[in-house]
Amino acid sequence: MPKVINPVDISKEENEAKKDYFDRHTPHVYCESKAKKAEKFTVKVTMGKDYPHPDDHDHYIQYVQLWNRQTMLAEATFTAGALGNMAGHVEVDFNIVPTVSMKLSAMSYCTKHGLWQSEDVEVSVE
Amino acid sequence: MPKVINPVDISKEENEAKKDYFDRHTPHVYCESKAKKAEKFTVKVTMGKDYPHPDDHDHYIQYVQLWNRQTMLAEATFTAGALGNMAGHVEVDFNIVPTVSMKLSAMSYCTKHGLWQSEDVEVSVE
Amino acid sequence: MPKVINPVDISKEENEAKKDYFDRHTPHVYCESKAKKAEKFTVKVTMGKDYPHPDDHDHYIQYVQLWNRQTMLAEATFTAGALGNMAGHVEVDFNIVPTVSMKLSAMSYCTKHGLWQSEDVEVSVE
Amino acid sequence: MPKVINPVDISKEENEAKKDYFDRHTPHVYCESKAKKAEKFTVKVTMGKDYPHPDDHDHYIQYVQLWNRQTMLAEATFTAGALGNMAGHVEVDFNIVPTVSMKLSAMSYCTKHGLWQSEDVEVSVE
To answer: Are strands C71-78 and A121-125 parallel, antiparallel or unpaired?
Structure first.
């Protein structure tokens, strides 16, 4: 069964090839830490920080999902070539409407290297 | 077979109920009219302008797709409740990397009222 | 905006290249014409009859959707290579549970040649 | 981050409510143990054995994915109501074309209870 790879602290990784591998496959969730109840709230999901990921037909990021704990809120699916077939960073902004405090995370799928998770991001809703 | 509903000029529609119906089901594409080749380019897709759409478990916008002519670039899928189960406007920002001039459009699916298309938006790439 | 290509009667087409093109992009729905209410009912969706479709990384059938009139019942998404990267026919069996009579159809997406529809198939439910 | 729930041996579970919960959320992969190289090979994925799962608008199985090790081969997405809004077993037959030996598994998503995995099924390809 597919293993879901958890976030790795690449600053502690000595092997440069592994740093690249872990960084470009790790999704990140960016948003404010506080949201207003029942108002639009933007959540950015990106892939990688320092190392871009290929957008080749046989090797690309096929989807990123936005989760609140065990519940999937939204998913963005990409077609190879949407990033110009060049190495880059997948980036999508989902607009959601929170009603209770959330623990957000992202899960992404690379067609060559499987399933990857982000760190959790806590959002309080007032 | 499902009919894909094309954009309707609701300013010409006298029936208020139909104005509401057409407006809240119509996707819109917003982006700059010029893009720089091989650089990140943000495309916003939203549903409706003046009338919000329900986000009920049995009636919600399940997906919006971003197209360049006959090619799908990306798709955002939503779970009912992602907009707080309140009437609102689906809104997602896709970041793509253009290499040639594009004719963008969006297609969306309402779980009660089928498939809807946006107007085309032309983007020149330099 | 993407055009959805309707079924073409290829027996009337004199151009062999067009016959091939139309055949291998046309989805077909196969099932019994009568279903028992509230019982499992199998619906097969395939692509093409006489001409196989490529399963190349830059040219494959990405999804087939099963529709009842304006309502999508189910969708199967494929990854390039699931058919061994060889020309073939996408084939998936969905099991659904009908409660009222249906007018089924399929819509499919080829990553190079866009959106295609099947003929309708009527199913009475007793 | 969402936890992916691994298969549980429910025969060892004394709590009847838990047996029900684990059984109806567990995907299963059924296929022959041997496949012929480059020929069509049918893989059935179902949810649960003894206990059916609801098909309610706010609680249903949204997708099942078929995996070969870390690679997703295909995914079936369902709309609530495709099983008649009655408790039942999701069931889909994917036809794939193997070229090398496989270790198949399924992953499924319940809109209320998250991500679930099947046991692995090994298939030799000759």
So the answer is: unpaired
CB A43 within 8 A of CB A102: no
| Alpha-carbon dihedral angle through residues C35, C37, C41, C46, given to the nearest 10 degrees | 60
Pick A2's closest partner by Cβ from D107, D112, D119: D107
**Which chain C residues are closer than 8 Å to B120 by Cβ?**
1
Q: Tell me the pLDDT tens digit for each residue of D28-49.
A: 999 999 999 999 999 999 999 9
Question: Nearest CA to CA, how far is B75 from chain A (Å)?
Answer: 5
Name residue, tokens 């139909």.
Answer: B18
Q: Interface pTM (ipTM) of the complex?
A: 0.95
Mean pLDDT value across chain A: 96
Cβ pair B72:C117 closer than 8 A:
no
- Identify the band that residue B8 occupies on the pLDDT scale cut at 50, 70 and 90: confident
CA–CA distances in Å: residue D41 to residues A1, C57, C92, D124: 19, 20, 11, 12
**Cβ D74 vs Cβ D13: under 8 Å:** no
Amino acid (one-letter) located at C100:
V
Please report residues of A whose CB lies closer than 8 A to that of D112. 71
**β-bridge mates for residue A20, sequence order:** none
8 A C-beta contact, residue B2 and residue B114: yes
Residue C110 CA: distances (Å) to CA of A37, A70, B102: 41, 33, 19
Q: How far is A124 from chain D (nearest CA, A)?
A: 16
Query: In which band, very low, low, confident or very high, does the pLDDT at C16 lie, cut at 50, 70 and 90?
Result: confident
Of A77, A97, A99, the CB nearest to B88: A97
Q: CATH assignment of C4-125, given 3.40.1110.10, 2.60.40.730, 1.50.10.10, 3.90.226.10?
A: 2.60.40.730
Residue in the structure block whose two tokens are 């073409």: C8
Which tokens hold the place of A49?
A: 């920080």
Bridge partners (DSSP) of residue C4 are: C115
Give yes or no for D58 touching B (CB within 8 A). Answer: yes
Rounded Cα gap, residues D101 and D120, in angstroms: 13
Q: Measured between CA atoms, how close is C104 to chain D, in angstroms?
A: 12
Return the closest-CA partner of residue C90 out of C57, C126, C51: C51
Pick the closest to residue C59 from C14, C25, C102, C105 (CA basis): C25
